[in-house]
Amino acid sequence: MTSNRLFAAFLVGVALFTPPMIAIFGHGGSINGIPLLFLYLFGAWAALAAVLAVIVANGTR
Amino acid sequence: MSHWLTATVPLAYLLLLFAIAYWADMRAGQGRNPLASPYVYSLSLAVYCTSWTFFGSVGQASQRGLQFLPTYLGPTLMCVLWPIVLSKLVRIGRSQRITSIADFISARYGKSHSVGALVTVIAVGGTMPYIALQLRAVSDTYQILLGAAGDHPQTVPLPLDTSLWVAVILAVFSILFGARQIDANERHEGMVTAVAFDAVFKLAAFLTVGAAITFGFNDGFADLFTRAAAHPDLARIFTIDGAGEYGDWITLTVLAGLAVLCLPRQFQMAVVENIDERHVLKATWLFPVYLVLINVFVLPIAVAGRMAFVGADVDADSYLLALPLAHGSRVLALVAFLGGLSAATTMVIVETIALSAMVSNCIVMPILLRTVMAAYPSRNLAGIVLATRRLAIIGCIFLGYLYTRLSGDGFTLVGIGLVSFAAAAQFAPALMGGLFWRGGNKKGALSGLSLGFLVWLYTLLLPSLARSGALPLSFIDAGPFGLELLKPYALFGLTSLAPLQHAMVWSILANCGTYVVVSLLTTQDAIERVQAALFVDGFSTSPRVVAQFRQGSAAVSELRSLARRFLGAARANRAFARFIASGSLDPASDEATPELIGFTEHLLAGAIGTATARVVVASVAKGANVNFNEVMEIVDENSHAIAHGQMLEAKSRELEAATTELRAAYEKLTELNHIKDEFIVTITHELRTPLTSIRSFTEILFDNPDLDISQRQEFLSVVIKEGERLTRLINQVLDLAKLEAGNVAWEIREVDIAQAVRDTAQSVGQLFRDKEVTLAVDVPTEPVILATDRDRFGQVVLNLLSNAVKFCEPQTGRVEVRLAADDNSVTVAVADNGRGIPASAHDLIFEKFQQVGDTLTSKPAGTGLGLTISRNIVTQLGGRIWVDSEPDQGAAFSFSLPRWRVPADT
């Protein structure tokens, strides 16, 4: 069960950090002066880490 | 700040690191292992972040913006799979006593010396640029801290070259950390603890300096980014656009993802130094969090550096230091330097310790076995093992130094580091294939690894040396000997890719392709098959399990002296004492059990590698040349036993389920049998009552022929009535039997049931009139069409009506029949104002021969089968029947039938 969730998270991660998604946020533009790509990458990255923490915690309980 | 401080503080920091390691080693010796914490394990993995992260990332970000991130996103993605992949590596590593990645791969492919040696050569060659990167980063930043301009290493005379002194210091510390003594289990608690400390320190240093640059020297993220966006040539570093950028992005992500598993030092930390498989789970999310944190300030620092040093000749790789210096803060600069130094030092220490174990176990030991050991069989080898390791550490660091001298500073830090990543990635096919594909064999691994390594050498390492002038530049521009097709950056005319992508495409293609094809075309020998099964299926193999693969005999004393030669007397004696204490050896006998032979091999594997340990032990254990056919039989038997076990388990589960079903069926049968008996008893009783009265009346008539006509008539009418009752009863029993057996021919037609109810009410009209009970029929005047069996429907209504009239008082009695219909169902209700039915009997009255009231005292008013038959009919027509009643309030029997649906049982 945990393996399946991890594998799904891996696929989501690959989708988040490869060109189709990178290209959407990579054209430039900014929110409150912070570049969009910078915001997106760090946000998605932290979110993935959080999801991992949840999956692992649920798996060992 | 004086130069004196600048020189002593770094040295003091390195001594502090060593003190921490020493303290941790002592604690571990006392049984309080600092590695027991999953946080120490997770932090120790941060050895991934070297001075590349500290200085190189900033340099790369200042040129290419967020392209520095794939180096950390790749490992994050790999982290997601860690609980699957890394856990398996750790489990196998533990059971096989793996000491390095070379050991792991060699063990997987039949404990092969040649595979181990090849992996070692690739690892040493591939790591050379990486160590060079650390040396250069430390010496460059130290120069900047001193205020001297970084000189070209090739122009500086040797004794004045900072890199040389950095190399010497790092070599000394590496030996102190990893090769003070020979370790039986190849674990370095002190080193790991120091690395964990370094992880915290470098993160804190980077965040401090980063925050100072971002918020102290500038006005935060938004300010920096907004001003940078105004620069035309800076604005583009916030974007990633175009196929070339995407290609780089993907290549870097894949490369870094593989590197975090395949780099010798990462393997050392993640697999060899792991003491608890569960720690992997914690690291799975903690490591990504660490990576996020250490990268937050990279882009702001890069942007700040670009804007602060417009036109100035400042190396972008040193912004982290140059920015504080430019703002006059030598303390911050020192903190930045210390962070970088710490990161570089731990990287070099862990990397060289891992490499030295490989060199010693996979190259030097096998050679020693054939030479020294063959010539002087009784010589103690523990000293030689230790010396080998120290020399290997020194050798690796000085190879790195050599590369620094040769490659010059024409490259960025990241450029150098990626060359190493590409070499480490060559291990991935043999490692992952070996873990998940049984068919991968030694010949495949050997050919795949060597071809991949050669391509890497040719397309990345040699050109990097050519570009710095160590080789003629024509090698790149015109190809070797002027052969255009062999140009290292455009092999076979592939010109459209950047050098790194180009090298990756060719090397991984060659590596994977050869590995798979050769593995498929050649066969495995027996020990390869054994090892493949152990690795892929992840059997846990304790020495006792391995022992069944062994048949030789050996003397305990011989094994003990063998262990002493490699581990030293004290360690060997301790280990043997533990084994004897576990009770699996008779201390009086000198004949070693197979378990002890396995144990010795296992013990030695920690010090000299699995492949060498196997040969060494085999040299002592006479006849230990295992009969591999038998081994294969054992392995096959094991797998068969497991398969059979699983089958048996499945079968027994099925059996259990079947038993439960059978038991339920049996219980039902017993109950039915009981009901049948009861039915027969009841029915005989019911039949006897009318029969008795018929018999007694006919007997009276027979015995008294002179009875007067009126009395005779009266008796005869009783006989007729009882006869009718008997007939009715028998008819109903037969009817019920037919219904229950299910062989009733239903005639389902669309009928107007409103008319049917009216007809039935009319047919029983005489009954009501006889008893002077009012019958009210409340039925819609328009037809209500339902597909049903008209006769059976009528029979139910008739039963309910005749029941109702029976329980009504004469004169005051009133019975009402209602018909209600909606789209889904029709409901017929027959309500009376009789004496009602107590709630406890609501279900009972539908059972056979169950009548309300005391059957002993009052004469039964019916056969007791009417309601049972009605329920049977209604149920088989797909509906249900029920009663609403309270005592003395009358009773309302209702049944409903679904509309527009032909009942299943026709």
What topology does this entry show?
The complex is a heterodimer of chains A (61) and B (906).
Chain A: H1 2-16, H2 19-25, E1 30-31, E2 34-35, H3 36-60
Antiparallel strand pairs in A: 1-2
Helix pairs in contact in A: 1-3
Chain B: H1 3-29, H2 38-44, H3 51-64, H4 70-80, H5 82-96, H6 101-108, H7 113-146, H8 162-178, H9 189-217, H10 220-230, H11 232-235, H12 243-262, H13 264-272, H14 279-295, H15 298-308, H16 319-326, H17 330-370, H18 372-375, H19 382-407, H20 413-425, H21 427-436, H22 442-467, H23 474-477, H24 499-521, H25 526-537, H26 543-547, H27 556-567, H28 569-581, H29 594-608, H30 610-620, H31 628-703, H32 709-741, E1 748-752, H33 753-763, H34 765-771, E2 774-778, E3 785-789, H35 790-806, E4 814-821, E5 825-832, H36 866-876, E6 880-885, E7 891-898
Parallel strand pairs in B: 2-4
Antiparallel strand pairs in B: 1-3, 4-5, 5-7, 6-7
Main traits of this protein?
heterodimer, A: 61 residues, mainly alpha, two-stranded antiparallel ribbon, 3 helices, 2 strands, 77% helix, 7% strand, elongated, B: 906 residues, five-stranded mixed sheet, 36 helices, 7 strands, disordered C terminus
Commentary on this structure:
The complex is a heterodimer of chains A (61) and B (906). Chain A has 61 residues and is mainly alpha-helical. Chain A has helices spanning 2-16, 19-25, 36-60, and strands spanning 30-31, 34-35. The two termini of chain A are 13 Å apart. The model of chain A has no long low-confidence stretch (mean pLDDT 84). With 906 residues, chain B is mainly alpha-helical. In chain B, 68% of the residues lie in helices and 5% in strands. Chain B has 36 helices and seven strands. In chain B, helix 7 crosses helix 19 (382-407), helix 20 (413-425) packs parallel to helix 24 (499-521) and helix 31 (628-703) runs antiparallel to helix 32. Chain B starts with a helix and ends in an 8-residue tail after the last strand. At the A-B interface, helix 1, helix 2, strand 2 and helix 3 of A face helix 4, helix 10, helix 12 and helix 14 of B.
